[in-house]
Amino acid sequence: MMPVGTWWHRAGFFAVLCRNDPVLGINVWDNWDREYFGAVLSDIFYDSFSLCEDLLIPERPLDRQEIRLGEKKIYRLEQLRSLSSYEVKISYPATFPVSFYIELVDDERSQVRTGRRLLNTEKLEFSTPENVEEFSQHSRIAIEVDWHGITWKQNVTLGQIVYNIHLGRVFNGVPIESFPHIAAVLALVCFFVLATLRNELTWPFSFLISNARDENFKRQD
Which segment of the chain is annotated as a signal peptide (predicted)? Predict the structure, then answer.
């Protein structure tokens, strides 16, 4: 995605560089030029960074992702459903004394959509509006990592931190993908309860009951 005004920004940037004339002694690095230079560089790096965004698709986990301390990694959201709730989860080795920061940001203004920064958390929940296409177009998941806590290892220097990231739908905080497992457990529990009430599962306890009766008879004798 190319920001508006990028080309004329770059044209102005090169025009500013042409003003640097050592013969005339023109100082190109005044305050206005420094701000302009920084804005143009941010646009250029933004273009390159946007091309390197990874896709985050529901129920398609991304394993062995790498990030450095203080670095920010951006994920673009795809194939979201309207009026649905999602959860972004991160897992990483416990041997890394780090904390992950997860944000839902707007790529146009780089503002946090949730209105708060989630610290010391490895998951983030958000809901999609009715116009999910516009939401997916302008929303990004930003991941940062910072040093946190201590480790038992001596002289640890962290390079690339490896982690896994997963995006999944949730309902009242419960992942949708876990519903079949929950239903299977509930069905099994109901089967055992009903079978016990109908005296069809007394055979596992028959051996214990017979032993208890034999001991009672021996005590009476």
Answer: 1-25
